[in-house]
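WARN retry 2 of 3 for item q-0093 after timeout on previous attempt; input resubmitted unchanged.
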Amino acid sequence: MNPSFHRAGVRAASRAASQAASRAASRARATAAVIAAGIALITLTPAVAAADAKPDRANLCPHPPGRIVCVDQDHQRMWVQKGSRIIFDPVLVRTGYRGMWTPNGTFHVYARHEWPNAPLLPYSQFFHRHYALHGSRDDLRKGKSKGCVNMSVTDARRLWKTLEIGDTVYIWGHKPGT
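OK item q-0093 returned
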């Protein structure tokens, strides 16, 4: 065999192996960056972080003696207080968007419909016109509410057991980015 031909073949094979290794390392770095960005996005999303936190003492929800549902649209979270004591820990919610706002103000639960197997409005508790607190089977971090206060079906079921007709609902703020 011609020695120069052999050396050229070895060099080409070495160069190809080096390029393949470089491409694999580049793909691994890109994959790691995408995973890290996704984790950072999930952990730093204000709605998710805020729903995990207890409301601070400066929260805007009033403290009447009875039960009050507090909906903080700025942080996309909801909880229930009785006086100043939290009786239903904060949960992630999805509220309306520009043109389909969730109304701000003080309201009262005037109608309740359990509908546990309903595809759209399980555990509905209406507080103003056609607006309700209700469960959603969709990912709350995606999509839009048409003005209702959406939460997971599990949270809506727990809220159903907590509230009664006449309980106060207090809503403030606006969904971030709308």
